[in-house]
Specification:
Elements (H helix, E strand, L loop, with lengths): L5 E9 L2 E6 L4 E6 L12 E6 L4 E7 L5 E3 L2 E3 L3 E7 L7 H13 L3 E7 L7 H9 L6 E4 L8 H8 L3 E5 L6 H8 L25 E4 L5 E4 L24 H4 L16 H7 L5 H20 L2
Parallel strand pairs: 3-5, 8-9, 8-11, 9-10, 11-13
Antiparallel strand pairs: 1-2, 1-4, 2-3, 4-5, 6-7, 12-13
Helix pairs in contact: 1-7
Length: 294
């Protein structure tokens, strides 16, 4: 205990109460001290005063090292991006958008390729062969066959992780294996639209018995559009780095410029064409946003 109270972590905000876990893994249902004016988020590190019967008073919110807007959560270390072998087929555009957002927010991304007990989609094969070669973490998992779960737990140990990705990829089923007694509702993939309906309604951190915490994200889990200028985007594509310095122009966007080493690397299949196309999609989105705000 410090002079300001006991240190704790906010696991969820529900019904006007804040559920705070202390260092002994005990959870307290807390109300706010009236002097706190800022919004208290899931993931906030706080000081609180324990009371009887598992209740408490939340006294102070500690400074955050980051904050995500969608989902609204603080102090995240890892982004676990869940894609499926198939059903639904993985979207490389969405994957790259999430990887850029992770890099922008200084989160460590892990690509979780789930449902590996099913046949491998063409895009799943691309994920398996391309991304690890470019330095991205990849874990292949199967809830049905209990494969890869220990590797995911090891990656989360003593850190806060956000679980993201399209509905129907098995995020809730993964949570049920990772978190004992979680009882997260799951829903099958819709045959009509090819993806699942999400069943989570609020952001909650689930403590893992092996250490660390994991959050599911409500709704279709796409983090905010990249919060950056168009000229910054290429720095979040690691395979561009060694070529960017060889471009004719120091501020090259690798778009319409001449003598662009990145575009040459794409022509020579050193940089995958699909990654470059996804880069252009994001770049054009950022350029359009910049024009709107001029």
């Amino acid at each position: 205990m410090t002079n300001g109270g006991v240190e704790g972590l906010v696991l969820k905000n529900y019904g006007g109460f804040y559920y705070v876990q202390d260092s002994n893994k005990d959870i307290y249902e807390c109300k706010l001290r009236g002097k706190i004016k800022q919004a208290v988020l899931t993931g906030d590190k706080v000081l609180f005063t324990p009371l009887e019967q598992g209740r408490g008073i939340l006294e102070t919110v500690q400074p955050r090292h980051n904050e995500l807007q969608r989902p609204r959560i603080a102090n995240v270390d890892l982004l676990l991006i869940v894609m499926a072998h198939t059903q639904p087929a993985p979207s490389l555009v969405l994957l790259d958008r999430l990887l850029v957002n992770a890099s922008c927010k200084e989160l460590t991304p892990y690509i979780i390729l789930n449902k590996m007990d099913l046949p491998e989609d063409e895009n799943a094969s691309i994920i398996t062969t391309y991304y690890p070669r470019k330095g991205f973490n990849l874990i292949k998992s199967s809830v049905r066959n209990n494969i890869g779960i220990d590797s995911i737990k090891e990656s989360i140990a003593n850190r806060i992780a956000v679980l993201a990705g399209p509905s129907g990829t098995g995020k809730s089923s993964l949570l049920n294996l990772l978190v004992e007694g979680a009882g997260i509702k799951t829903q099958d993939v819709s045959k009509k639209i090819g993806r699942g309906r999400h069943t989570t309604r609020h952001v909650e951190l689930y403590p893992l018995s092996s250490g660390g915490w994991i959050a599911d994200t409500p709704g279709f889990s796409v983090l905010d559009p990249p919060d950056m200028e168009s000229r910054e985007l290429s720095s979040h594509f690691p395979e561009f780095h060694s070529f960017s310095n060889e471009c004719r122009f120091g501020d090259c966007l690798h778009y319409g410029e001449k003598d662009c080493a990145v575009k040459e690397a794409v022509k020579e299949n050193i940089i995958a064409e699909f990654r470059y196309r996804n880069y252009l999609t994001l770049l054009e989105e950022l350029i359009k946003n910049e024009r709107c705000y001029r």
